[in-house]
Design a protein that fits this description.
mainly alpha; two-stranded antiparallel sheet
Length: 82
């Protein structure tokens, strides 16, 4: 399975066949936007923790910001397609 351009194996939490590039567009399986947003947000926040950008004290606030941003982006993308 091809990963989104420039992201190597990211996002690693997607099992094969659930996310990928098809004719230059990101596609989803039957997963809901909320589940997709949770998985993508997890990958982003884990990376922030690994590089020291998120601490225990700021985790809750950071999680909310990242999750809401990802979810809104998915909804906007779906609105533009539909």
């Amino acid at each position: 399975m091809a990963s989104p351009a420039g992201f190597g194996g990211w996002p690693s939490s997607f099992p094969a066949g659930e996310a990928g590039l098809i004719h230059g567009q990101f596609t989803y399986s039957m997963k809901t936007d909320k589940e997709i947003a949770l998985r993508i947000s997890k990958e982003i926040v884990v990376k922030f923790i690994e590089v020291g950008r998120v601490s225990v004290s700021s985790f809750g606030e950071t999680w909310k910001l990242v999750y809401n941003t990802v979810l809104n982006s998915l909804k906007e993308d779906e609105d533009q397609k539909g």
